[in-house]
UniProtKB/TrEMBL annotation, chains A, B:
InterPro entries found in the cross-reference section: MeTrfase_7, MeTrfase_capping, SAM-dependent_MTases_sf
Protein name: S-adenosylmethionine-dependent methyltransferase
Stretch list, region Disordered: 1-23
Example of a GO biological process term: methylation
Keywords attached to this entry: Magnesium, Metal-binding, Methyltransferase, Transferase
Example of a GO MF term: metal ion binding
Length: 359, 359
């Protein structure tokens, strides 16, 4: 009976994407995330073809899928649909059409995620039973040995919390004048790395217990290529930080608040990830590939909307709602002045396929 | 693959209780419902002791509970806790403490239910994994043979829709000048009975597929004693109807709207219920008892709040939000004038225990 003990609500902060379906909502500003889901589809299909043992859902005869960090849709529905179709196809192509199981899909995100919006958006003609699961994926969410296929797209780069040291004035890792580790000193980088490593240990520990033996965990994540500097993929976050510093200089926000504000995200390298997975020991890495995403040029305005949908909750909590319009207008202006940074070559999106060992 | 075909969202209307935690919310106005949960606890415990085969959750080793029509809490958490404690106690008292399974609880209600509020209210120290399941319980909600214990408290007296005939001017069952069947002619009563019967057939058909063999379905329901007239348990609904007619006479609402407005609820008798369960054929009735609920005298004001929390959504949809305050103030006044009708002896609350046959 580990549920209460390992319940994640005590160990994690919540940074849900902006809810509802208004102009600044995640639902209306997640087109790039959709392109990532599209790009992952081929690998998902190949993964299921090569790695899925169809007998894993016996004797219950239901195939259980969970999407972690689902936000409010619609991308999460697309991911689940892609998985479901690929599994069904495998049954068909192996001559087992009559044995296709039923499917239940669990949509997970923080308790403060807008589940009302998610449920209202569920596709009406879906071929699965749907359930919402509130809580941090860095803790236990499901009973033991109950999920056949875990999926998560662009969510596990979010840390469970800001590393403590970077907000403490007395610490050597104090991140004064910046809101991220990407252009900061080694101490700050190490604090972020340590938090990521700890979080992923919790993540893998929980998933190892919850995944059916020979079940799959497929994660699409924002990362950085081996050997790349930390700043490469995080240019837009640095621009957001410089906007906040500008506003501090103008007295719109307090400098102290900017000093203590940090975006809790980390871009892992494949090498780092391999070490973490091996240390956990319960999963084999079946694939770890760079996803080729064809992002259209989306301009400064769209960049501002995307950034706002993802970070509005965090910023509101620290600085109040009233600064949002000014901040993102300034951000848009700065991006316009150096539009070339939006070129997609600098971001690295990986897809890793883990298979639960049977030991 | 019956999910899409049997998805309930197409066949049912939604009447969620008032969400949030404001003064008119269900969360703040469900004390009587809590007393019903308390009253059912003893029977629940006895039921589990006498009827639960502990091997039914093998080989998955997780005990799956679903509460249907859960609203926003907190009563639903109490019900789940009561079930969980009784199941654990059975393991312990049969010397199987080391084999106590993990628990997952599914909280179900209409898609428009306030799941955000429900999730925020989940007890922090719970001993189960929680999930929300949106959709009408008159359709399929779960995979086949996946739930060990279904529970529903004061929810299955709500029909899936207003019986069509009672709103049609040309029908013999047209329910002019009334908002319920309780004091209406035989044709209206028959239309409500037919709708209830049809709904419960759908309910039992879906649960029969979803319940693990030898699993239990425990329903607490508002009903009427065998032989009692339909009006006995529905006096307060009739008073609400008379308030609306008064307001129509004063021109505050249109008479036509009152004529076409009907509360979609039905109080079944034990005899009727037995017939429906036997016709379905998949469940044995292990118990069907009258619950003894000790309602405190709660006065006209509390009666108005309780009625409002349960019917506000329905009324808003038909008449608009602006009439709510006046309507329930009038209702309170009328109840005050005949306060003796609140005496609990006139209501009949039953608890029925169904066990899934193994055929």
């Amino acid at each position: 009976m580990a549920a209460a003990m390992e319940d994640s609500s005590n160990v994690s902060e919540a940074y849900p994407m902006t809810g509802g379906d208004g102009p600044n909502s995640y639902a209306k500003n997640s087109i790039r995330q959709k392109l990532v889901v599209d790009a992952a589809k081929e690998l998902l299909t190949k993964t299921i073809k090569q790695n899925l043992d169809l007998d894993i859902c016996l004797p219950c005869d239901t195939f259980y899928i969970a999407d972690l960090g689902c936000s409010v849709g619609p991308n999460t529905f697309l991911s689940v649909e892609n998985i479901l179709e690929a599994v069904k196809f495998e049954y068909q192509s192996r001559g087992l059409s009559s044995q296709i199981p039923e499917f239940q899909a669990f949509f997970n995100d923080h308790t403060l995620n807008d589940f009302n919006m998610l449920f209202k958006s569920l596709p009406r003609n879906r071929n699965y039973y749907a359930a919402g699961v509130p809580g941090s994926f860095y803790g236990r969410l499901f009973p033991k040995v109950s999920i056949h296929f875990f999926h998560s797209s662009l969510a596990v780069h979010w840390l469970s919390r800001v590393p403590k040291d970077v907000t403490e004035k007395t610490s050597r890792a104090w991140n004064k004048g910046r809101i991220h580790y990407s252009n900061s000193g080694d101490e700050v980088v190490r604090a972020y790395q340590a938090q990521y490593s700890e979080d992923m240990e919790c993540f893998l520990h929980a998933r190892a217990l919850e995944t059916v033996h020979r079940g799959l965990v497929v994660l699409t994540l924002l990362g950085r290529h081996n050997g790349d500097s930390h700043s490469l993929g995080n240019v837009v976050v640095d621009i957001l930080g410089s906007c906040l510093m500008d506003m501090a200089r103008k007295g719109v926000v307090s400098e102290e608040k900017v000093d203590s504000f940090n975006i809790p995200s980390y871009c892992v390298s494949p090498q780092e990830l391999e070490v973490i997975v091996e240390r956990n020991g319960c999963f084999s890495i079946e694939a770890l590939e760079t996803l080729v995403c064809h992002f259209p040029e989306h301009g400064a305005k769209r960049s501002a909307s995307t950034m706002r949908a993802a970070t509005e909750g965090l910023i509101k909590q620290q600085f109040g709602e009233e600064i949002l319009d000014e901040l993102f207008s300034l951000y848009q202006q700065k991006i316009e002045e150096q539009i070339s940074i939006l070129e997609p070559k600098k971001s690295a999106i990986f897809c890793v396929v883990l298979k639960r060992k049977t030991n």
